[in-house]
Amino acid sequence: MFSTKPWDVYVEELLPIGYGHPLWSPEPISTGSREVLVGDVGWLKEGEFRALFNTTRDEDDAIHQELGVPRDFTVFSPSTALILRSDKITAPMVFSRSISASEAQAEASIDPRPGVAEDAMAKRHIVNYMRSNFDSWLEFANASNSAGGLDRRDLRPSDLLFVCGTLKTTQWAVAAFHGSEFRNKQGQIGSGRVQGPHGLETRTGVEGFSGIQVHIGDTPLPDEWCKAGPARRPTAELESHANQCLFIHYYKMKRRFLLSVEPMLAAAGPDRLPPGPQDPGPDAKVPCQGAGASACDDHRKSHEGAEAYDPVSDLLDYILLASTADIAIASDLDLITLFRRVPSRSSP
């Protein structure tokens, strides 16, 4: 029944509402001390953001103690950068646009306090910074001496993200479901323990908020399709600190890839070849074409661990296929602008 991954359904349904890319696993990674931060560079795996380093912190900052930083690392600190902090999502629950009508539906719940958003208002600086440093980021991401036990696999250029915004809370619950059998059915969210706002019931003992249960009609969702957090009750000192990241805004970058019939040596010639005859010969570079080429640096077979649903990569593909640009850089914010022009789906 559940052949689609829950984090993919979750992203597909909640991304259009405009808060950013939703994380299926909002809790800080590792031991809970490393929360997602504006300026992070990392990648997504199974709905979790995995940070490599933070561009706004110095090389010797404690946050870089485990993995280090890329070669020739420079701190991202444009003089005109503006970090805006604001309260968003004042409602206790967030639903996808299709919560009453689609075959794939999702929802997220946060605690009654507003979600805290931080956004870097420096698009031009981010684009220029990525263009200058991206190659060293990718090299660092795939270097064996920076593995850190994170199962990084073979990351492609399009897997790397630059986080330009976060939306965090202190408590959360997430659920997703997929399939026509759930259409036009009522659902219940709870655990049979402590009653919370808007009918949300969560386990609030020492172990935290991990006891969410969801029923759609008479069908309970499997545990892997709904969960809550944080896994441990926060201390009094951290109780008011919003470090559970529900959504991120990010930038991605792709280069136009050139295929070659024969292997080429690095730096063997100019980046652009002069015009040649109609038949360029067996040794000529040819730009990959068509949607199947994935516009170009993702010509390799998709690997385990990369996020399966990511429309920003599709947008980068489109930019490279529809233009002569050698580099494409785009953000989920660009998609949000497009989504706002699309009317909500209505019930059948």
What are the SSEs and their pairings?
Layout: H1 6-14, E1 21-22, E2 40-45, E3 48-54, E4 83-88, E5 93-95, E6 104-110, E7 115-120, H2 123-141, E8 161-169, E9 172-178, E10 187-190, E11 194-195, E12 201-202, E13 213-216, E14 219-220, E15 226-229, E16 244-255, E17 258-260, E18 285-287, H3 311-321, E19 327-331, H4 332-339
Antiparallel strand pairs: 1-16, 2-3, 2-8, 4-7, 5-6, 6-9, 7-8, 8-16, 9-15, 10-13, 11-12, 13-14, 16-19, 17-18
Q: Would you give an account of this structure?
A:
The chain has helices at residues 6-14, 123-141, 311-321, 332-339, and strands spanning 21-22, 40-45, 48-54, 83-88, 93-95, 104-110, 115-120, 161-169, 172-178, 187-190, 194-195, 201-202, 213-216, 219-220, 226-229, 244-255, 258-260, 285-287, 327-331. It has 2 domains: 6-252, no CATH class; 254-264 and 281-339, no CATH class. Mean pLDDT is 72; it is low at 100-105, 192-210 and 260-307. Strand 2 and strand 3 form a beta hairpin. With 348 residues, the chain is α+β, with helices and mostly antiparallel strands. The protein contains 4 helices and 19 strands. It is globular, with a radius of gyration of 22 Å. Strands 1, 2, 3, 4, 7, 8, 16 and 19 form an 8-stranded antiparallel beta sheet that branches. A 4-stranded antiparallel beta sheet has the order 5-6-9-15, covered by helices on one side. Strands 10-13-14 form a 3-stranded antiparallel beta sheet, with no helix packed on it.
